[in-house]
Design brief:
It holds the Pfam family Peripla_BP_4. One of its GO terms (cellular component) is outer membrane-bounded periplasmic space. It is found in: Cell envelope. The chain folds into 2 domains: about 170 residues, Response regulator (Rossmann fold); about 170 residues, Response regulator (Rossmann fold, 3-Layer(aba) Sandwich). Helices cover about 45% and strands about 15% of the residues. It has 13 helices and 12 strands. Helix 2 links the parallel strand 1 and strand 2.
């Protein structure tokens, strides 16, 4: 972490792994194991895994004296399985898996057959011993609140507003939790979907689906529940093309997302510092490699111990906090079209 503004959150992450009461997994790492096996899901341009999580996990594990075997499935379920088989044949004391389209489930079964504990990282995997992520239902609640607040600021009645609902890929267990959290807020406010899009994490596909939704509602759109910044960007491009600016939700605090927030095209984004998540997963993995059985601060519905971290809802006036924490740069954010907005909101 580069700035002190997030030190307290990092401390909470550590406490969640090592100090809070709650459910602990039964599986401990094989005695004498010194190797942590990690599988990341993809390396697409602009994603966090290679530039962010890989070095953070590797440093934490190797600094603690353990070997880190970190590989990337490159958006290929078959490669995910192959990597896992290779890692398991060499021996793993613990596995940290970011699921890709359900590929993690069979790896969990193989690991548990060998007595190796598995940490589902960022995305839930059935049968994992632990799940480490930001509190996904809270993320969804924040997204729902973005729509509530945005419509209120526009002086539009949420009960009659034309809202397009979208969600992430249904194959991703997080997507259901995000949507559940969002709906808990929107339903309570009396909102109803004018159109519900098919779920996807593919930004280009989200744009196509939104064009179809836009046509279905005859261009009457008052707000859009978008599951992340990538989808939001494609949706906003279509809104721009049609001369509309309405509240749009998001998450990830990506450069494009933060820029859209600064420009008033996206109401807010949910900031989830990957450094905090990587620290929580590393601390948990190290504890398991030491033979400990840490308790978690929450559990999933299936009983999986859940190290749940606190997300941060980020409106335009809080974008500067993401920069101060070192998770975005002025150079990347404050391009020519965004420079005035950066100045307005103190991003420097």
């Amino acid at each position: 972490m580069k700035k002190s503004s997030l030190i307290s959150i990092t401390a909470i992450a550590a406490a969640a792994v090592l100090g809070l009461s709650g459910c602990a997994a039964d599986t401990a790492a094989p005695a004498g194991s010194t190797r942590a096996c990690v599988i990341l899901p993809d390396a697409d341009s602009g994603t966090r895994w290679e530039p962010g999580d890989r070095p953070a996990l590797e440093k934490a594990l190797t600094d603690a004296g353990y070997e880190a075997d970190i590989q990337n499935a490159q958006s290929d379920t078959a490669k995910f399985a192959t990597i896992a088989d290779q890692q398991l044949s060499k021996g793993c004391g613990v596995m940290i898996l970011v699921d890709y389209q359900g590929a993690g489930a069979s790896v969990v079964e193989k690991a548990k057959a060998q007595g190796i504990p598995v940490i589902a990282y960022d995305r839930p995997i059935a049968g994992a011993d632990y799940y480490v992520s930001f509190d996904n239902e809270v993320v969804g609640q924040m997204q729902g609140q973005m729509i509530v607040d945005g419509l209120a600021a526009a002086k539009k009645d949420i009960k009659t507003a034309s809202i397009i609902y979208s969600s992430g890929d249904p194959a991703d267990g997080n997507a259901a939790m995000f949507l559940k959290g969002a709906l808990s807020v929107l339903d309570a406010a009396g909102a109803k979907a004018a159109f519900t899009m098919e779920g996807t994490w593919d930004g280009a596909k989200a744009g196509t689906l939104f064009e179809q939704a836009f046509t279905a509602v005859k261009g009457k759109v008052d707000a859009v529940l978008a599951p992340n910044d990538n989808n939001a960007a494609s949706i906003i491009a279509i809104l721009d093309k049609n001369g509309l600016t309405v509240p749009v939700s998001g998450q990830d605090a990506s450069v494009a997302g933060l820029q859209n927030v600064l420009l008033g095209k996206q109401w807010a984004t949910v900031y989830k510092p990957f450094t905090i998540e990587a620290k929580a997963a590393s601390d948990l993995a190290i504890a398991l490699l030491k033979g400990e059985k840490p308790a978690a601060n929450k559990t999933l519905e299936d009983g999986t111990p859940f190290i749940a971290l606190d997300p941060i809802s980020t409106t335009a006036d809080k974008v500067k906090d993401v920069v101060a924490a070192g998770d975005a740069t002025v150079e990347a954010l404050c391009t020519k079209d965004v420079a005035a907005a950066c100045a307005k909101y103190g991003v420097k």
